Amino acid sequence: MQAEIYKGYSIWGHAILQQMDILEPERYAASGTITQHTKVIETSGILGSFETEEDARQAGLAWARAWVDSHG
How far, in Å, CA of 23 to CA of 69, rounded? Predict the structure, then answer.
């Protein structure tokens, strides 16, 4: 999980390991969360599947920034 402050909101990018079988390569599902003053404002659901944990977290953060920009 990676967090940052963006335009007064705390935004979070999540990477969720999605390995179905030990022989398959690791994949990470991405999601994002937006909070303000400890209250959850919005969550994304699954945004897609990524090869790296970092790519998944960055996708979640990008979604959260876009949500804040479109609702601010």
Answer: 41
